[in-house]
Design a protein that fits this description.
This protein is an alpha+beta fold and about 260 residues long. Helices cover about 40% and strands about 20% of the residues. The protein is built from 10 helices and 10 strands. It has helices at about 20-30, 30-45, 55-75, 105-115, 120-130, 165-170, 205-220, 225-235, 245-250, 255-265, and strands at about 5, 15-20, 75, 90-95, 135-145, 150-155, 160-165, 180-185, 190-195, 200. A 5-stranded mixed beta barrel has the order 5-6-7-9-8. A two-stranded antiparallel sheet has the order 1-2. The chain has a two-stranded antiparallel ribbon with strand order 3-4. Strand 6 and strand 7 (about 160-165) form a beta hairpin. Helix 2 packs parallel to helix 8 and helix 4 (about 105-115) packs antiparallel against helix 5. It is globular, with a radius of gyration of 19 Å.
Amino acid sequence: MMSVTTAAIGDPGSPAMLDTRDVVEMFKRFSRTVYDDARREFYRKVNLNPFKPHSQYVLQLVEWSFLDWFSFDCRITGVEIAGIGPEGPRVELEYDALRGISPFLAAAEYLHDHDGGVGDAALGDLREVDESNFASMFWIRDANAVQGRLMVEDLIHGEFYSVFDPMAAAQYDGAHGGLIVNRIAHARGIWRSCAIPLYEARRPDAPDAKADIAKEFRNAGYTPDVAGLLRFFYGRAKDTGLGWEDTVSLRNTSVLDRFLNRVCV
């Protein structure tokens, strides 16, 4: 049974949140076609090499990421949330990102309308999370364990954020550099991490490495979603499959330029 939770246990100021696993299970049960189509699309985009051995951690990370990608980044149309019953909701997966609503929002509104533990205030939180969340590559400008905050720069879009994430702030306390690839969302006046990091690296942390990689991504206009970020770090074909350190080592060559030109075609 799906239930509403808070983003931080024991913090009464935390916004309401839905477990994305529950969101996926809801659609898997009531709209298997939508679930199956989305899963095929996700793994097609990630493009893991089936002939390359992957650690259990990477495989689990990809699976966790599918839950978030389906819940937040997919769009569904023809949704008849009020009509969910034995035969399930009448929905279709939408490939136009400007149409439809996310499964996360559809589930939140269903729970609100059917006494599923989502009140008006919680629905407001969930709508704000749905509207604001995004995944990107974030450069750590400062980490403060006492405040539980990270000051980060979005390397892909060029914006700066103060993110409440006590666990990451403690892990990177005092760091002025390094990379976290994750999803954040704004709710109740605060940006918060709202997923498991896709990738983390404390080194390299030199400002010139950050500046060079950020410049290449922004100039190329490469703005990947979660599936694209996974493909960049772990996939094949259109992406390098290299780690952050390997990617940085290419910054003074034309290899990275050719790669970015290829993925943006």
